[in-house]
Amino acid sequence: MDNSIRKQLFIVTCINIGQLIVGWSVGWSAPIIPKLQDLETSPLPEVITDLQASWIGSLLYIGSVVGPYVTSILSNIIGRKPCLIIGGLLNVLAYILVVSTNNIAMIYAVRIVSGLGMGITMVSNIVYVGEIASTHIRGILLTSTSIIGITGTLLVYAIGPFVSYVMTGYIALSICLIHLLGIIFVVPESPIYYAMKDKDDKAAKILNMLGRAKDVEKVVDTFAKGRESSSKIMDWVEIFTIKSNRRSLLITFLLGAFQQTSGVAVVLFFATTIFQLAGSTIKPDLATIIIGVTRLFSSLIAPLLIESKGRRILLLISMAACACSLSLLGVYFYLDRIASPVLGSIGWLPLVSLIVYFFCYEAGFGTIPNAIVGEMFRANVRANGSALAITLTWLVGFGLTTSFTTMLDALGGDVTFWLFGASCIVAFLFTYFFLPETKGKTLHEIQEMMMNIGQFIDGYSVGWSAPIIPKLQDADETPLADVVTDFQASWIGSLLYVGAIVGPYIPSYLSNIIGRKPCLFFGSFLNLTALLLIVTTRNIAMVFAVRIISGLGMGMVTVSNLVYVGEIASTNIRGILLTSTSIVGISGTLAAYSIGPFVSYAATGYIALVVNIVHVIGILFIPESPVYYAIKGKQIESKNVLRRLGRVEDLDNVFESVRGTNPNEAITWKAWIKIFTVKANRRSLFITLSLCTLQQTSGVAAVLFFATTIFQLAGSSIRPDLATIIIGSTRLIASLIAPFVVERAGRRILLLTSTAFCAMSLSILGTYFHLDKIQSPIISDIRWVPLMALIMYFFSYEIGFGTMPSALVGEMFRGNARSTGSAVSMTTAWLIGFGVATGFTSMVNFFGGDVTFWIFSFSCIVAFLFTYKFVPETKGKTLNEIQEILGRGLTRGCAGLLPAKSLERPHLPMAGVNLNLLATGLHIGWTSPVLFYLSDEAQSVLPEPISINDGAWLASIGTLGSVFSNLFLIAPLVDLLGRKYSMLVLSIPKLGGCFLYLFANQVWMLLAGRVVITIGDAAMFSIIPVYASEIASTKIRGSIGTILHFMCSLGVVIMFSVGPFLSYNNINIMMTTIIAAAIVPLFFLPDSPYFLYAKGKKEESREVLLYLRDSEEQVNEEIQEYEIAGQQGQENKLDVIKSKTFRKSIVLALLLSIGNMLVGYNAVQFYLQTILASTGMSLRDEFGSMIVGMIQLAGSIFTAFISDRFGRKSILMVTSTGMGLGLFGLGLSFFLTEGGSTSNFLNILPLISLIVYVFSNSSGVGALVWVVLAELFDDKSRGLGMSASLLTANLIGFLTVRFFPPITNAIGPAITYWIFSANSLLLFLFILFFIPETKGKTFSEIQDLLSNKKNVSKKSKGEKEDC
């Protein structure tokens, strides 16, 4: 790290000690008010009243309102540094008053003086940091002030409940004194202040010291111009007379006001009181500590993303999530007010809601406004503007905290928190429209939002029947005179399709006559009619009418949405916007699943009615499609809309796409004829119609409409209504993945992946029904399978199969045929869906559930083959280009649209080695079920149950085999035999180890087998990343590396999921079979092109590269790199070691390997089932291990999509933070259990913590560390470097696994996991400060970066600036 940056960080650290005190002051009232209301802990002669408590909370704002103006007046007179000192002195005075308190007046004085110090310190900090920080880290340093403030609040939450009132003062006083000394002796005056005072030499000196020499001239010139005319009065006047300052004040004040009206101050000041009020099962003081930890961890996210992703997107995500969590808290208080019987089982909800609230709040809403305040004003008014904005904000906070108890009494907790949630929604809209980053994008996004409200109603209609049919079959809940029959229920499910079949033809006919916008309005109006019928239902005919009219509206809205969005969207985001329609539709279905079971039949209509009214109003404000104007020949109108969309350069493309179109053609038979006579349209229809048809025959409609019924039919152990909510949530989460990867991975690859996993999951569900039909004895142990299979099905379905066909429908037709073609495709699909939904119960009765779901699975296999053969890739193509390629012929067109071979072919040899990593994953997870069996006398193959000591050796001794492999085998073999034959030679002994397992009857046989197999596993872990990095291009090196981790994770998942249900021998037979199968593909792999070149086989190397790369130019570039590496490679190993760059690489690699092992992941993996059994959860440990395994698999899939999108370093930092949080939660669960605490939340906290921990590891640290390690070394040192890294990792891994049981027994599991959590934080800091970003760089560029060559530094810097 540059020395000047270190100086900036050191100075800001001193500044932030003051921010720590600010946070302490903010949170101080939460643990103190309960003490003051208890005579035994209060320093006062009598307890305080509720009114006095509210004043203690809110008086902080009295001082904080005045404080900023002290800074604003004095900062331009005496300087920034003296203002910091004054703020520090006031904080010292406040805590002297705390330690000498003897009456209520002194406490009031404490809060006022603290507020005064807080106001001066906060404004001075923001102004000062904004002026000294370099541009590229200013956002990070400004957000750090919020993070440290949160840390201060966490400290007082964690310490306050356990020490006396006076002690809270002594602790804060010592921190205040350290802060004051730091300000006096370490912090220099601001260079901006010196420049304003004509002290240019001093300003230049400070800027040079800060590493900002290039800014000297700019700073001096800026203030030379306005020095004479500047005055204190004019500084205030300029806030209101200069437009940029006025706008800055409006934005900063409103953001701050929305911050306060979201209730953050209320929750912070009254956190303990809120939990007491809610009657939560969690101890209030413990809950506040958990919230504080959450705030600290989540606030670390903002600095990582603020400079790369921008302020606005973080704010929007944060505000939306805050609104949701506060709404949930309001729901809890509502259920408490009506004395709902469900309340006893959700005592954990207040804590979870506030954890989500603060996690989301601190990731954006709580930190970014402070950064914006420090950036937006001109220098001469920065202090004044910041003071005014913060003062107005704190006035709002003062009013809110003072009136909080009154609001609770008058409105109740439910309405109060719903108001806070509404404030977050208003903040979201304000950010959406007015924050500067919205320029040029707002209209486009508003349109998409309006479209998606209609799609939400469509999704709601689809899912509505699942919770409603059971209500209509219950005499107590139905609004009808009689309960409905099964036959009537099937019609309720399927009649939606009757209307949906007709609906698409209405926009098909009208969209080219009256426009796209009126069609959207008519569809929304039909949905409104259907919802009015729901709330007035009196007989079965009205229910049937609801479904038909809903289907009619759904058909119109869906087709109109696809056409409209496809026409307004820019090429680079068209796929994202089209898939978002499916996502919002899924959200609607989830809403129906989540709300329907818990409200009345009529209430389901009222809820959707409110949403639909918003949609109807919103449609009125969107513009007409530019393509419709082009069809009508209205060039000016079309151009105006395109300009507003930021697409004015697409005007020619839009008119070209509709050239030769007759505006009146839509009302004649010619429009229909062209669907079949124009070659491009015909091919488009063939593809979209086939995909939509296969989509329906996969059974999605049947599962959605009869979800609750399927679980009842399966006799699942999961409550049907709960299962449907879980499935709905899974659909939503999975569908969110598609927009992130659709423009990167493409439509085709997502469809192939999705259909393959859909086929697999439906086969599993069919197998469950078959086992149930033959009354297999295993069925009682796998009642969870229907839920897991459908979660897997919908997760896979929504990633691609559920979203991509809709996107393709919106892309593939010509402008004049788009409505008609979309109508034909969607109508045919819905007609088939109607048949499937109507005939589902008959199919189950006739074929049985097994054959029915196997048929659905077969349909997914057909969809996979169809996609592979016929579906082109439309990513990155304009609508016009897609038509041109389709018009040339499907085969040639596909050739132009399929992914380049450079992206596909490296995956083929990797497919051959992936089985080896699958086998390695099986062996990693092997100890979890096997140790459980070996410790059970009835199931052990040993003469007696295995001891704890022998079990620890069995889990850990494999790492000694890894050490041997890394020390003596891998490096010489890789250099002698090459990558391919080294993998082959070291794989074969693994079979011998498997046979030792199979015939073991003594512990030594198990230990020997463990060592032998692990030698081969270590070889695979060392050689395969090297092989992968050498055959992959820089574009996909990260994704290939993470696919390797995915396969290893898949092996672990299989062992965790299947192992607990197999016998010891069957586990080993399965593993032996897969290891044997994995050896076969190794015979057919090409060797590494680099190794071949190094051995003089240049022609063979070139042939391999020509196969792997997209162009001969890339091949020549890599050959040139090999040549350079070969010339440098004449050095021997000693010369390599002498290289400064290698020494730096090896130190980084060794420390990264050690850090990766010290987070305890191996120990958790090897002892997972034992850990789960020791938590005392009601969930069976084998099911828990299966869930954890599935999460690991999901994480490794996730990282494959993001590794080359976000960069290695940022992913590693975020996931190491997540690991720390998960481990902290796991330790906390053991701590509370050992302390005798009992609650429903404690029953699920261990599993939640493990899920967070495992997902974080598998989605980042566990996968990308090995990728980064392979990238840190050059070609000639990679084998040596990887061997040394793995050797170190295995030694540390051995120690953690071997001594995990005795350490846990000695100091307790809670402290053990907290140590691992602290190690995760250290890993985060190490990555932050020392690991370089390797994404997108060649190996030569990475080496130049490590050796600090200036040309690379400049290049990297230039690239960042371009971004």
Roughly what percent helix? over 70%
Report the top-level CATH class of the largest domain.
Mainly Alpha
Under CATH, the topology of the largest domain can be stated as Growth Hormone, Chain: A
Number of domains: 4
Strand fraction: under 5%
Q: Say which CATH homologous superfamily of the largest domain is assigned.
A: MFS general substrate transporter like domains
The end-to-end distance, rounded to whole angstroms, is 21 Å
Radius of gyration: 33 Å
Query: What is the name of the CATH architecture of the largest domain?
Result: Up-down Bundle
Tell me, briefly, the overall form: globular
Number of strands: 0
Arithmetic mean of pLDDT: 74
Low-confidence stretches: 225-231, 437-450, 665-669, 890-905, 1350-1363
> How many H/I helices?
64
Structural category is mainly alpha
Largest sheet, in brief, is: none
Membrane topology: Multi-pass membrane protein
Subcellular location: Cell membrane
Pfam families: Sugar_tr (PF00083)
Protein name: Major facilitator superfamily (MFS) profile domain-containing protein
Describe this structure in words.
The protein is mainly α and 1363 residues long. It folds into four domains: 3-187 and 231-438, Up-down Bundle (Growth Hormone, Chain: A), CATH 1.20.1250; 442-899, MFS general substrate transporter like domains (Growth Hormone, Chain: A, Up-down Bundle); 903-1085 and 1151-1331, Up-down Bundle (Growth Hormone, Chain: A), CATH 1.20.1250; 1338-1363, no CATH class. Helix content is 80%, strand content 0%. It contains 64 helices and no strands. Helix 5 (104-132) runs antiparallel to helix 6 (135-159) and helix 57 packs across helix 58. Mean pLDDT is 74; it is low at 225-231, 437-450, 665-669, 890-905 and 1350-1363. Residues 11-439, 447-875, 913-1335 form the Major facilitator superfamily (MFS) profile domain. It comes from Chrysodeixis includens.
